[in-house]
Amino acid sequence: MLSAVPETGLRVLVTGAARGIGRAIAEGFAAHGGRVLMQDRDDIDALPDGAIAHRGDASDPADIEAAFAAADAAWGGVDVAVANAGVAAKIPALELTPERWRQIVSLNFDGVFFTAQAAGRRMVAQGSGVILALGSIYSVAGAADRSAYCATKAGVAGMMRSLACEWARHGVRVNTIAPGYIETDLVSALVAQGRIDTSVIAARSPQRRLGQAEEVAALALFLASPAAAHITGAVLPVDGGWLANGAP
Questions:
Q1: What is the radius of gyration, based on Cα positions, of the chain?
Q2: What are the pLDDT digits (tens) for 43-58?
Q3: Is 124 helix (H, G, I), strand (E, B) or coil?
């Protein structure tokens, strides 16, 4: 039986890794013996064993290339790349300025492509690798006041499907993880601002709760493991049944 645990010593790069889901994914790989480069535009505190930090903006292709170059210098390459960096945006469409639209698209969509492209250049050459992008339940569903967010997350899913088809023959697998509402500092901030009501969100989920960042990390670890060798081009939700629930 193929193992559902990633191999020890994997070289892993995670963007947006200072906190939240990105941090949990980085810590998950490190706990399983991975060597992890944690990239973020903010400071990264208390690095897990086997991890190094790299300061940079995931929406800037030069910063992304610099992060991959740092992994090359440290470990000779990357086996797993996780394009996690992104921004939440709940803004009525009629109030969305061109500048804010471009900021959201730059990080949530362009940054994912730059990360996947930099990873793909290396992985295609070495004949193996796993690329994971963080989409969302809004890669599939829609919601009011989230036009830019939904557009970018749907675009990420489509982009990853295309890259999966393009690079499969080179031994590279590409998948999208689509979390639902996860208990993170970002969600806590939105609650404090009165922008979301977690009791309503939990009631919408058949499991009647929000998810944990570690549960998203567990899927990332599985997708990087030998047990997921035949999974590519997929969009996999971690949402407690939120998308499945059609009940009012």
A1: 17
A2: 999 999 989 999 999 9
A3: helix
- Name the residue among 217, 127, 120, 128 with its Cα closest to residue 162: 120
- At the top level of CATH, which class does the domain 11-182+213-235 belong to? alpha beta
**Domain map of the chain by residue range?**
11-182+213-235
Alpha helices in 76-146 (DSSP H): 98-105, 111-126
The amino acid present at 175, given as its one-letter code, is N
Cβ–Cβ < 8 Å for 26, 48: yes
E strands, 152-193, are 172-179, 182-183
Tokens 């601002």, residue? 193
Cα–Cα distance between 102 and 246 in angstroms, integer? Answer: 33
Which residues does the annotation mark as catalytic? 149
- 129-144 pLDDT tens trace: 999 999 999 999 999 9
| SS3 (DSSP) at 217 | helix
Asked if 127 contacts 79 with a C-beta cutoff of 8 angstroms, the reply is: no
